[in-house]
Amino acid sequence: MKKSLLTALCIIVLSCIGSEVRAQATQGYDYKSAIGGRFGVANGITFKTFLTDQNALDVILNFRSNSKSSTFKLVGLYEIHNPINDVQGLRWYYGGGAGIGTYKNKETDNSGAAFSIDGVLGLDYKIDGAPINLSLDWKPEIRFAPDNSGVDFAGFGLSIRFAF
After folding, report:
1. Which of 43, 145, 148, 152 is an S-S bond match for 114, by CB 3.0 to 4.6 Å?
2. Cβ contacts of residue 27 below 8 Å, gap of 6+?
3. Cβ contacts of residue 57 below 8 Å, gap of 6+?
């Protein structure tokens, strides 16, 4: 009888501690999805949705243009978010994915399909009490496109999203 009571008491205490830890882990991250703009070397629309408390999908539709080329691309990223202790609403994340789109070389007038393998490393902040999510990240990519294959490390961006 004493063992049963002790076991039940331990289960109740551990359950309470576990729910408190889960509540603290998600405190300040009270959004499931967010949509908005991404601004940087390539500007576009971004939609992020969480699959679990830590794992998210970020889909970016972007346009990049300079004097030599223009690219229109859809990028899908799988991100793993980790809390930063003592800062409510702030997490760091990393991940990777791929992109597909079109590319045009303005100098030679060549165009075609553009593919990329993308990485991401960044900070994600959800403003407590407001439906605003901010992300600052670095998104390097390996590009596969006519006249523009190679590695691009210039993919810094700021995302401002409406969280819901």
Report:
1. 145
2. 88
3. 48, 49, 51, 76, 77, 78, 79
**Alpha-carbon distance values, 126 to 49, 93, 130, 144, 153 (Å):** 13, 13, 8, 34, 26
Does the pLDDT at position 86 exceed 90? Answer: no
Rg of the chain (C-alpha set): 21
Q: What is the pLDDT of residue 17?
A: 39
Q: Which residues touch 61 (CB under 8 Å, ≥6 apart)? A: 44, 45, 46, 73, 74, 75
Pairing relation of β-strands 90-105 and 132-138?
unpaired
User: What is the pTM (predicted TM-score) of this model?
Assistant: 0.79
